[in-house]
Every structure is written in structure tokens, then in C-alpha cells.
Amino acid sequence: MLWKKFLFDFVLGGLIVAIVVLVANLISPVIAGIIAAMPIRLATSLFLIKFHEGEYAAVEACRGILHGAMGVLVFAVSLTLLTKKFEFYPSFGVASVLCIVTTYLMYHFLG
Question: What mean pLDDT is predicted for residues 74-87?
């Protein structure tokens, strides 16, 4: 049963990534980014957590999602600003570190 859950999650995640890349190639990278930011995978994960672990676990997962979302926001803003002055890869590295630090601080102080 556990392997089916992981297989479903893997296939769904891959499908979402494939759709985002297709949209980026056919329509616009900005539209692809908007689709990537939608909580499609997040909502699916919450439903699966609710189904397998119960409502309390799903609510607690939402708290974790909030912490991670703040990290993603910091990542997106910092990457956007840093790439105006620096190369992409160093900017990506700095933005990733800022994302991790923000997520940790959110968890530590609001946990």
C-alpha cells in the first residue's frame, strides 16, 4: 500500500512538471511560473494526508506549508532581484540559502 502512495505522488509530480515545461515552451515562462505556483500538488498532498493520517495531521501539514511558503516567497523575490546584478547560478545559490534560512526561522519561531 505504501509503494502505491509513493508511485502516485511520483507520477503526479512528474506530470505537473511536464505540464509546466510544456506551457513554458508553448505559451510563456511567466504563465508556466504561475501554474507552478498553484497549489495543485499541495492540495493533493493534503487530501492524501487527511485520508491516510487524519484531519489533525492535515492541519499540522498546513502549518508546515505556511513556513515553506514564506521561504519560497523569499526565494522568488531574492532570485528576481539578484539576477538583475549577478549571474543566474550564484543568484540561485544565494536565493536557495535565503529560502532555507527563512523556512527554518519560520519553523523555529512560529513552529
Answer: 97
Distance CA 81, CA 72 (A): 14
Backbone phi and psi for residue 15, each to the nearest 5 degrees, phi listed first: -65, -45
The pTM of this model reads: 0.72
What average pLDDT does the segment 64-90 reach? 95
Contact status, residue 44 vs residue 36, Cβ threshold 8 Å:
no
CA angle 102, 43, 15 (to 5 degrees): 95
Cβ neighbours, 10 Å, residue 102: 19
Q: What is the pLDDT of residues 6-28, one digit of tens each?
A: 787 788 778 888 888 888 889 98
Rounded to whole angstroms, the Cα distance separating 12 from 54 reads 22
Cα(11)–Cα(9) distance, integer angstroms? 6
